[in-house]
Amino acid sequence: MAELIKHVVVDIRSAWNGPMVVDPTVLAGEDHAPWDEEWSPSGLDGWARVGRNAVVFDKHTDIDACIRLELWTDEPSMTQPMWDRMWVGEIYLRSGQLQIHDFYEAWSRGDVFDLGQRDATWAVRIQHRRLENDQEPDFPRDIYQVDIFKLQFWMLESLLT
User: How many domains does the chain have?
Assistant: First the structure.
């Protein structure tokens, strides 16, 4: 059974148009960035774009957001009720770390989230839900209307053997 190793929740204020979860090597100019032509993202029906080393969220400018990053021992089971949107795939992290940064501005939030393995491809489940109440226990209770994004990371089998 998969176990949660660690997590962090970061609040994103409404001024942020495009929060992204990105490998810090991108911000240092050491890897392709979401603004480079070579990045080649996969669009997820207008709510996010996933590329080789980052996820860029399309968030309403007048709504706050919360991003929850989780590191798991194995693939976590699905929680009920189901989230509005979900994507499962892989992401390569040269540094083995994640930073929350704004796509359009030079703003970062929170500390670096260290997954503990450099130069690795990670399995990731990305979920999105728009809350219009305060009933979600994994996020701050003083929110009314907010976009919440949960990213769950675990090692691929090939990394464990």
Answer: 1
